[in-house]
């Protein structure tokens, strides 16, 4: 797939356990953040987003936490399933009003059945 | 895949030849983007479009041009392909300019020999 050779940080998780994926963002002025999931051979898929006026947002089996003080974003996946195996990366907006996102390099999640 | 079709899905071409990649959307979204994805890098923006015949450069625009003659189509052209342009290219769309996720196609894998 597209991510072969990336040598991404890898998180191995037992099926049924919770996963936590972390992201440090660079721009303290960023006010909108997104998590994407990318499976091999596919494009990035939107998971969840959060605006800077919030510090937590929940979706179906996923929670995003935002800590603006240390410029840190995390994605928690509850009851990880084999279908959650993918590369996950965060994105922040470019605060130039053009919806230009800056993307992180990603984290590989491997779910062990 | 948010109604986004990229073509071709795979292409091998020789150095110095022109190449055009096509992105077609059925969502009637105003904003369209071309990114490239390479090992060791996050997604990097090549060009984007605010609407028909309205485009602008991204962070890695050298060697690329784009055209948008219809809302649904955004073309990326490599006038004279180089080996450094071997990459996976993703098209993305959004319906608003601020604070909205981009939705991606499944990519075109381009190899320049």
Question: How would the blueprint of this fold be written?
Answer:
The complex is a heterodimer of chains A (113) and B (113).
Chain A: E1 10-14, E2 19-24, E3 32-38, E4 45-51, E5 56-58, E6 62-67, E7 72-77, E8 86-93, E9 101-103, E10 107-112
Parallel strand pairs in A: 1-10
Antiparallel strand pairs in A: 2-7, 3-4, 3-8, 5-6, 6-7, 8-9, 8-10
Chain B: E1 4-7, E2 10-13, E3 19-25, E4 31-37, E5 44-51, E6 54-57, E7 64-70, E8 73-78, E9 87-94, E10 103-104, E11 108-112
Parallel strand pairs in B: 2-11
Antiparallel strand pairs in B: 1-3, 3-8, 4-5, 4-9, 5-6, 7-8, 9-10, 9-11
Fold and architecture overview:
The complex is a heterodimer of chains A (113) and B (113). With 113 residues, chain A is mostly beta strands. Chain A has a domain at 29-106: Immunoglobulins (Immunoglobulin-like, Sandwich), CATH 2.60.40. Helix content of chain A is 0%, strand content 50%. Chain A has strands at 10-14, 19-24, 32-38, 45-51, 56-58, 62-67, 72-77, 86-93, 101-103, 107-112. In chain A, strands 1, 3, 4, 8, 9 and 10 form a 6-stranded mixed beta sheet that branches. In chain A, strands 2-7-6-5 form a 4-stranded antiparallel beta sheet, with no helix packed on it. Chain A is globular, with a radius of gyration of 14 Å. The two termini of chain A are 21 Å apart. Chain B has a single domain (4-112), classed as Immunoglobulins (Immunoglobulin-like). In chain B, 0% of the residues lie in helices and 55% in strands. Chain B starts with a strand and ends with a strand. Chain B has strands at residues 4-7, 10-13, 19-25, 31-37, 44-51, 54-57, 64-70, 73-78, 87-94, 103-104, 108-112. By secondary structure, chain B is mainly beta. In chain B, strands 2, 4, 5, 6, 9, 10 and 11 form a 7-stranded mixed beta sheet that branches. Chain B has a 4-stranded antiparallel beta sheet with strand order 1-3-8-7, with no helix packed on it. The chains are: A mainly beta (113), B mainly beta (113). Chain A binds chain B through residues 2-7, 31-32, 34, 41-46, 49, 51, 89, 91, 93, 97-106, and chain B through 1, 4, 31, 37, 39-45, 48, 56, 58, 88, 90, 92, 94, 96-107, 109.
């Amino acid at each position: 797939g597209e991510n072969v050779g990336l040598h991404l940080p890898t998180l191995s998780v037992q099926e049924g356990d919770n996963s936590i994926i972390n992201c440090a963002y660079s721009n303290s002025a960023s006010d909108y953040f997104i998590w994407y999931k990318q499976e091999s051979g596919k494009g990035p898929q939107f998971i969840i987003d959060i605006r800077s006026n919030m510090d937590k947002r929940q979706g179906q089996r996923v929670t995003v936490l935002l800590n603006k003080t240390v410029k840190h974003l995390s994605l928690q996946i509850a009851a990880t399933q084999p279908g959650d195996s993918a590369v996950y990366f965060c994105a922040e907006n470019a605060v130039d009003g053009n919806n230009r996102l800056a993307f992180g390099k990603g984290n590989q999640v491997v779910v062990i059945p | 895949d948010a109604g986004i079709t990229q073509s071709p899905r795979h292409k091998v071409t020789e150095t110095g030849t022109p190449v055009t990649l096509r992105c077609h959307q059925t969502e009637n979204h105003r904003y369209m983007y071309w990114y490239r994805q390479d090992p060791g890098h996050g997604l990097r923006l090549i060009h984007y479009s605010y609407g028909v015949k309205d485009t602008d450069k991204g962070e890695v625009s050298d060697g690329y041009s784009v055209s948008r003659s219809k809302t649904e189509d955004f073309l990326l052209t490599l006038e004279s392909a180089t080996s450094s342009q071997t990459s996976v290219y993703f098209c993305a769309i959004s319906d608003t300019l601020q604070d909205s996720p981009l939705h991606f196609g499944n990519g075109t894998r381009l190899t320049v020999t």
